[in-house]
Design brief:
Helices cover 73% and strands 1% of the residues. The protein has 599 residues and is mainly α.
Length: 599
């Protein structure tokens, strides 16, 4: 099944759920408040269960997430929960720091590299401490959204606990670009504090991150942006400050566009006056003209046009310094054109390669046929969605449903059929024909293995639960319970295999699976996908139908880590007020800075 079509199916199903929820009750607000109260009780119950986890790493990961969710319901209680997280985290760092400086014991010798998280030539304590540093950043990022001062205090104080010089220096290097991410997060909710932190960060230098922060602050508070802009201009005019040309170009370009927009009727106040922009352009030009180790004799020519808008004489000096300016411009354009052609060709080869490697089509006719099938499948989905928007008589509706149903049954792929039938059933149930909706869901249920044993089986079971959640929640819970019972057997086997191959105790420690950031890149990826897939319409719909039954399903997991993770997904679906982000934006949501690169 193609990725675009899968996404289309999921989006249609989610939009169906949203429509259903918006029109089904008149007292949505009251019911939502009651649901959140029940969810808060479930959160406290889950917090008690988290305290029973064996490893501090799991306790910290789960407790931080619970505290973040509690903030949407009770900030005072959430603040206290974060206090507990920070205390336990600091104690863990102290212990790992001490162990990392001690000589390796016989059972803690240096490793040739972990199977999941790397760690070549490091002891277990060193590996754990490095991971803890990344977790420190994640905790600070989640806390910054709610309590910026508390986040910055934790961020600074926890670094002071690390006395291992080598690891401390590594942390300080990574903190440079993480600090900018943290300030950007704060800028969304508190521009004034973001400006205060950003102004202080200018002591370390000016880079592209601070220009990004200036743009974010200006979008919400022009006065605060002007305050920060003054501090930036002072840094630019400091001849001793080392600032990259691309940063100055980005600053002048943004500031210029803001100034020009401010001159229009009803325009927003500019960050800088024209005189200040001239000062900025002069300082920029002075740096270009004063460069002694430029990469080429043409260095700075590409900025001359922008500088000329505010300091024509300086721009003329830059152009005069450039030898063979016309030839250089032609050469530059030729290089750009050549690069564009090369990139286009490379892109074409890449697409061709991917097409050849991933496609099962041996002839153009087969490829065209597949495109026609996808168009037909999309039309089916459009027809299903349209059923809820048209005013039809019962006979007309029955005929339309029968026609769509026939096309769905003839569609290739169980996953497509189950999702499409579930969507159709949800629309029919919304129109009031519960019996027909149940009949359609039975068609979907016949396509699903009642005793799932592989990944596809479990995915189809989840799709079926999602369909019943919309059409008839009472029938969704028994299927969900049966699926979890089967999943318990699979999870037990997976953990055994994990223990067998995980020689450095990265995935399974003291018999407990390490969830989240402490569990390595593979587990991080898994939990992110779960967060995107599960904490959407299905869990939200089940929770609204019956939160107690939904929580009972989570409690049917045998392993405590799985139970807590399942409850976390339920709580996230009910309490989290933030909008779900597209897949490409996951890393910024989670604050996962491990793979980020400094600007």
């Amino acid at each position: 099944m193609s990725r675009p079509l899968i996404l289309l199916l999921i989006v249609c199903l989610i939009s169906s759920a949203s429509f259903s929820q918006s029109v089904s009750t008149a007292d949505t607000g009251k019911k939502q408040t009651e649901l959140e109260e029940q969810a808060a009780d479930l959160l406290r119950e889950t917090m008690t269960e988290v305290g029973q986890l064996r490893t501090p790493e799991n306790r910290i990961s789960f407790s931080a997430e619970l505290a973040s969710l509690m903030w949407f319901h009770d900030p005072k209680e959430a603040r206290a929960m974060y206090g507990g997280v920070i205390a336990e985290f600091n104690e863990l760092v102290r212990r790992l720091d001490a162990e990392s400086k001690a000589l390796p014991s016989l059972d803690d010798e240096t490793s040739p590299g972990g199977f999941f998280g790397g760690g070549y030539g490091q002891t277990r304590a060193e590996r754990k401490l490095r991971v803890a540093i990344a977790v420190r950043q994640q905790i600070a990022m989640s806390l910054a959204e709610h309590e910026p001062d508390m986040a910055f205090s934790f961020y600074s104080d926890s670094l002071a606990l690390i006395t291992n010089i080598k690891i401390r220096e590594e942390a300080e290097r990574s903190d440079g670009y993480f600090e900018a991410r943290l300030i950007k997060q704060i800028a969304d909710s508190d521009p004034a504090k973001a400006v205060a932190y950003s102004t202080a960060s200018l002591k370390k230098g000016l880079d592209g991150n601070q220009i990004d922060i200036l743009q974010k602050v200006y979008a919400t508070d022009a006065d605060k942006a002007s305050e920060f802009g003054a501090a930036i201009l002072s840094k630019v005019k400091d001849d001793k400050a080392e600032i990259a040309n691309y940063v100055l170009n980005e600053l002048l370009s943004f500031s210029s566009s803001v100034y020009e927009a401010s001159l229009k009727p009803g325009g927003k106040p500019s960050i800088y006056t024209r005189d200040e922009l001239r000062d900025m352009a002069d300082s920029f030009a002075s740096r270009i003209l004063g460069a002694k180790d430029s990469d080429s004799e043409y260095s700075g020519a590409e900025y001359a046009d922008l500088i000329a808008k505010y300091s024509p004489s300086r721009a003329a000096q830059i152009r005069a310094r450039v030898k063979k300016a016309d030839a250089n411009i032609d050469l530059s354009e030729m290089r750009m054109a050549a690069n564009a052609v090369a990139n286009t060709a490379a892109s074409g080869r890449s697409r061709s390669s991917n097409s050849n490697s991933n496609s099962a089509y041996s002839t153009p006719a087969e490829f065209l046929a597949s495109e026609e099938r996808e168009k037909a499948e999309k039309k089916v989905l459009d027809d299903v969605v349209a059923l809820g928007k048209k005013t039809l008589s019962k006979d007309e509706r029955d005929k339309a449903v029968a026609a769509v149903r026939k096309v769905i049954i003839g569609t290739a792929g169980k996953d497509k059929k189950v999702v499409a039938l579930s969507l159709l059933a949800a629309q029919v149930a919304r129109l009031g024909d519960v019996e027909l909706a149940d009949e359609i869901m039975q068609d979907a249920e016949r396509l699903v293995n009642p005793r799932p044993k592989n990944y596809q089986d479990f995915l189809l079971s989840w799709m079926l639960v999602g369909g019943y959640a919309e059409a008839d929640p009472d029938k969704a819970f028994p299927i969900l319970a049966a699926t979890i019972m089967r999943a318990n057997e699979t999870l037990a086997a997976v953990v055994k295999v994990g223990e067998f191959i995980d020689v450095n105790d990265e995935l399974v420690q003291d018999g407990e699976v390490q969830i989240g950031a402490f569990g390595g890149a593979m587990v991080q990826g898994l939990t992110k996908e779960l967060g995107l897939m599960a904490a959407t319409s299905t869990i939200r719909t089940l929770a609204k139908a019956d939160l107690k039954k939904t929580a009972a399903a989570a409690n049917s997991f045998d392993r405590i880590e799985a139970r807590v993770l399942a409850k976390m997904l339920i709580l996230r679906a009910v309490l989290d007020k933030r909008e779900l982000k597209p897949a490409g934006e996951l890393s910024s949501d989670t604050g996962d800075v491990v793979n980020d690169m400094p600007r």
